[in-house]
């Protein structure tokens, strides 16, 4: 038995489906990721779990787009000689100890900026 368009269920003579531009797909993905991005601490702040008080252990999920300069040896082995981060988005942060996430993860000042200096999980 030979497989034809009718046996595969193609059923349409509209022609091939046009391919989407890869740059359009990347922009759509970046817009979706931008909607769920999370603020990051800076030099004067850090994360704090609002549920358990953790200051030091968090799971961070992030997406990065990078441009890399690859040097290929004659044998074909690649060596990355330079990496530039084109864009980066933090999608979520959760507390490693209690699992809190979203609004329960706060950004507070670091001790030298007037914030807490004791982690309840470290003694």
What topology emerges from the helices and strands here?
Elements: H1 5-8, H2 22-35, E1 45-49, E2 58-72, E3 78-95, E4 105-109
Antiparallel strand pairs: 1-4, 2-3
Q: Can you give keywords for this protein?
A:
123 residues; two-stranded antiparallel ribbon; disordered N terminus; alpha+beta
Short description:
15% of the residues lie in helices and 35% in strands. It is of the alpha+beta class and 123 residues long.
Q: H/E series, N to C?
A: HHEEEE
Helix content: 10-25%
What fraction of the residues are assigned to beta strands by DSSP? 25-35%
**Looking at the structure, what is the overall shape?**
elongated
Number of strands: 4
Q: End-to-end distance, in Å?
A: 73 Å
Mean of all residue-level pLDDT scores: 79
Number of helices: 2
Radius of gyration: 24 Å
Q: How would a crystallographer describe the biggest sheet?
A: 2 strands, antiparallel
Q: How many domains, as an integer?
A: 1
Uncertain runs: 1-12
Structural class: alpha+beta
Strand arrangement within the widest β-sheet reads 1-4
């Amino acid at each position: 038995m030979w497989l034809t368009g009718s046996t595969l269920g193609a059923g349409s003579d509209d022609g091939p489906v046009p391919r989407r531009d890869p740059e359009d797909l990347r922009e759509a993905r970046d817009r979706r990721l931008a909607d769920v991005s999370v603020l990051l601490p800076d030099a004067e702040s850090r994360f704090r779990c609002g549920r358990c008080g953790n200051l030091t252990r968090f799971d961070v999920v992030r997406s990065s787009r990078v441009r890399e300069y690859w040097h290929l040896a004659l044998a074909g082995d690649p060596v990355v000689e330079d990496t530039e981060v084109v864009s980066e988005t933090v999608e979520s942060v959760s507390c490693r100890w209690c699992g809190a996430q979203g609004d329960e993860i706060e950004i507070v000042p670091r001790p030298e900026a007037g914030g807490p200096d004791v982690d309840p999980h470290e003694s």
